[in-house]
Design brief:
heterodimer, A: about 575 residues, alpha/beta, FAD/NAD(P)-binding domain, 9-stranded mixed β-sheet, 6-stranded antiparallel β-sheet, 11 helices, 21 strands, globular, B: mainly alpha, 8 helices
């Protein structure tokens, strides 16, 4: 028998970036907020001995416990979906801070083009540029409307950058802190790309170039370039994360509580309104009902979609008929690039997650696609994130995967190879979607989310084109051997690629093709908000967190407004 | 008969590893295999021969086994890891780096028991793109795989795996890599990939896990391990060599 608790103003499912932002803003506005978090409390003090590649990067110390819950996956609808039994292609977060604890910190604003991609593509290239199976749609909001929220997220996070990207959307303010150090590796990329006529700039970073106190009064320290960011927490409090910014800001109001070890299994609703959430504390085994005036889903792309499905809110997308919006437009990212092998030796083991330089000359519609069989592109960067020895074993093609030759080549090239890579945009396709799995269940008896996903012809063309550009750059950088990434075939969930999953709960101006409106308020349930990269109608050519942060600030404003006035916000 | 053969192979194995038997290996062959030699006090000698770097850890040393109950199984594993990551002029191979112990310890714990993995059925083979679909846990896959390697040695060469020439061992490992060996509940290719990853993990993880003995894996690669900061060095145009530091050596 579930125990019903006292009602609160706002309940968030999850306490990562989006849950933390909503909690901080709502609690500062005087609302009583509770976050239900399945993981544990954690913070900077837990990361003093974090330089342990095996534990954190290979055994996924900070990530979701898949023995309790995972997703199922297949490439095509005619296959049987099977559970993702081990972590691989993407890394699901868990615990205070969520994936915001173990991210690298690349903090971008999606291009103005992204938000109006359908309109711009049709205007410039006609209605048939991509086939009808690509379900391109505008986001219902423009870059200019979102700009104040980008600004707000960047000032909360203290982002370090240099404002030198000629293709970026207009900014109301410069980056709050200056760029990170331009190391010899970065200078090499800067020179090569400049010589080729491109426009390199410093990658906007949440590993801060200097100590910074944000408008909430929270301090983020200066990065020490220790080389342990992605998959790790920061022992210096120098990588902006929810647990050192928005979470303490929310707690300091006295209006906020995080309830740990608690897994939400259902959104409760009655008469077209959410009434609260049902959750299980997996330590005590007790079941609780947390009633709330407003329910906010902040539990990543996958779990947000799943909770709506298992709670029977909205119509699930059916790829046969094209009906339904929940679960459609699942996108990922593709990773074109090139590796160069050099004679000289570099300090590849030093670095920071967001230490890098980028060109946007092949991102968005910054180059003409008239003669190309794809749209969009990707930001192309060199990063010096700190090469770690278990994961980093670069060898030239035709080197065996083990044995004497492998050992020699991988050791030699560990400090003598550099890679550049793109965050390749991903367009929605009719056959790529999320639904519920009919067979497999989580530890609480709830169905797993089922992912059907494969790379498309658009992806393959984009990957090939940008890999060629990357190869030219790495050659220009003086590599004695340059190797472009091999063409992509079927998506494989085993090797790590990127935790940039998007879609499934997309935003838009029309309930016919979106799940939430542009305040991330559910079309069918006005006191339910769904926040995260699931709102993206497609995935752009950048890491998503900057845009997710902006959307979360907008949702927070909407939630506060709704709490005062009620009703639909559009 | 079989015992005789085993004894011979044990002796040969010790010979190959260049380690004298003695009081030191009373606890098993294995102390010797990784160069667990108290005599040189854990310091590297001039000719590149190194001890385990553990002379100060004689009590409670990682040089004991938590998972493998059978010496021969462990020796097959050891030889296979050494073929994957052999000793050469750059430095030690998997055996001297303690990789077999690392794998043994990991198989006894969360890794071997798939504690953080989704292990609910039903189980189906699935596509390669769907990843790990075996009903078996890693410890069961390793044990079966090692025994299959031994079987392959017997059927192909009529010898114990540990008595084979290097290229014969390579032939068998390659057969696993190419999925040409039948296994139960898992494919040979999958076992090979697990084994290869585990070897690299053992060679390059912090020495506190029992591999990367003396940080020799890191030294070969010029990775300095656990360093607080590179803020004063990252601007350097020259390659910077830094003495490595492990978490275990930093109390």
């Amino acid at each position: 028998m579930a125990k019903t608790l006292d009602k609160v103003d706002v309940v968030t499912v999850g306490a990562g970036w989006t849950g933390g932002i909503v909690a901080a803003e709502a609690a500062k506005a005087g609302l009583k907020v509770v976050s239900i978090e399945r993981g544990r409390e954690r913070g900077t003090e837990d990361f003093l001995r974090v330089h342990d590649e095996y534990r954190y990067a290979f055994r996924y110390e900070l990530m979701q416990d898949l023995s309790k819950e995972t997703v199922t996956f297949r490439n095509r609808r005619d296959q049987r979906a099977l559970p993702m039994r081990t972590m691989g292609s993407f890394l699901l977060g868990e615990g205070l801070g969520g994936s915001g604890t173990h991210w690298n910190g690349h903090t971008w604003r999606f291009l103005p083009y992204d938000f109006e991609i359908k309109t711009i593509t049709e205007k410039k290239y006609g209605k048939d540029k991509l086939g009808p199976e690509y379900q391109l749609q505008d986001w219902g909001i423009t870059y200019d409307e979102l700009e104040p929220y980008f600004d707000k997220f960047e000032y909360t996070a203290g982002i370090s950058g240099d404002d030198k990207n000629p293709f970026a959307g207009k900014r109301s303010n410069p980056y709050p802190t200056g760029p990170m150090k331009k190391t010899p590796i970065l200078e090499k990329f800067e020179k090569a790309t400049s010589d080729l006529g491109y426009s390199p700039f410093m990658l906007p970073s949440a590993n801060l170039s200097e100590a910074y106190t944000n408008p909430d009064g929270q301090t983020i320290n200066a990065c020490m370039y220790c080389g342990f960011c992605e998959r790790f927490g920061c022992e210096y409090g120098a990588k902006t994360s929810p647990e050192i910014t928005v979470i303490p800001a929310a707690r300091e109001t006295g209006n906020y509580e995080v309830r740990f070890h608690s897994n939400v299994v259902e959104i409760l609703h009655e008469g077209g309104k959410a009434t609260g959430v049902r959750y299980i504390n997996w330590m005590s085994g007790e079941e609780y009902i947390q009633p709330a005036e407003v329910v906010v889903l902040n539990s990543y792309v996958m779990n947000n979609a799943k909770l709506l499905m298992v709670s029977d809110i909205g119509e699930r997308y059916d790829p046969e008929t094209g009906r339904g919006t929940l679960g459609k437009n699942y996108c990922y990212q593709i990773l074109p690039g090139a590796t160069g092998f050099f004679d000289e030796q570099f300090n590849t083991f030093m670095g920071a997650g967001s230490l890098g330089m980028t060109i946007d000359d092949f991102n968005g519609d910054n180059f003409d696609h008239g003669d190309l069989d794809f749209i969009h592109g990707g930001s192309l960067s060199i990063t010096q994130t700190g090469a770690r020895p278990i994961a980093t074993n670069p060898v030239p093609p035709d080197t065996p995967a083990w044995g004497a030759e492998f050992k020699k080549a991988s050791i030699e090239n560990y400090t003598r190879s550099l890679s550049i890579g793109a965050q390749g945009a991903s367009m929605p396709h009719r056959d790529n979607y999320l639904t519920l799995d009919p067979t497999y269940k989580d530890a609480y008896g709830v169905p797993l989310l089922q992912l059907t996903y494969n790379f498309t012809d658009q992806d393959k063309a984009l990957h090939k084109y940008i890999s060629e550009k990357a190869t030219e750059i790495i050659e220009k950088m003086g590599a004695k051997q340059s190797v472009g990434r091999a063409p992509i075939t079927d998506y494989d969930i085993v090797p790590y690629q990127t935790t940039h999953n998007t879609g499934g709960t997309v935003m838009g101006a029309d309930p016919a093709n979106s799940v939430v409106n542009t305040w991330l308020q559910h079309w069918d349930m006005e006191n339910l908000f769904v926040v995260g990269a699931g709102n993206f109608a497609h995935n752009g050519g950048y890491n998503p967190t900057g845009t997710v942060g902006a959307l979360a600030y907008r949702a927070a404003e909407g939630i506060i407004k709704y709490s005062k006035e009620g009703g639909s916000l559009v | 008969m079989a015992d005789e053969k085993k004894d011979v192979s044990r002796r040969d194995f010790l010979k190959t590893a260049g380690v004298a038997t003695g009081a030191l290996v009373g606890g098993g062959v294995i102390g010797g295999l990784i160069g667990y030699n108290a005599k040189d006090g854990g310091n590297a000698t001039k000719d590149g021969e190194r001890s385990g770097g553990r002379a100060d850890q004689s009590a409670g040393s990682p040089g004991g086994r938590m998972f493998f109950t059978n010496d021969h199984d462990f020796n097959v594993l050891s030889e296979a890891t050494e073929r994957i990551f052999p000793e050469d002029d750059l430095g030690p191979g998997a055996i001297k780096l303690g990789v077999p112990y690392f794998i043994d310890h990991q198989l006894a714990g969360a890794y071997g028991n798939n504690e953080k993995e989704y292990m609910q059925g039903p189980f189906y083979g699935g596509e390669v793109t769907q990843g790990y679909q075996s009903r078996l846990r890693r410890k069961e896959i390793f044990l079966q795989g090692i025994k299959k390697m031994e079987q392959e040695a017997k059927s192909r060469f009529d010898k114990d795996f540990t008595d084979l020439e290097g290229d014969q061992m390579d032939e068998i490992i390659t057969a696993f890599q190419k999925d040409e060996v039948e296994m139960e509940g898992v494919t040979a290719g999958f076992f090979f990939r697990l084994l290869r990853s585990a070897v690299l993990e053992g060679a390059y993880s912090d020495p506190m896990y029992g591999g990367n003995v003396g940080m020799e894996g890191w030294k070969m690669k010029n990775f300095p391990g656990h360093q607080a900061s590179y803020i004063d060095k990252i601007d350097s145009k020259e390659f910077v060599e830094i003495d490595p530091q492990s978490l275990g050596g930093h109390h």
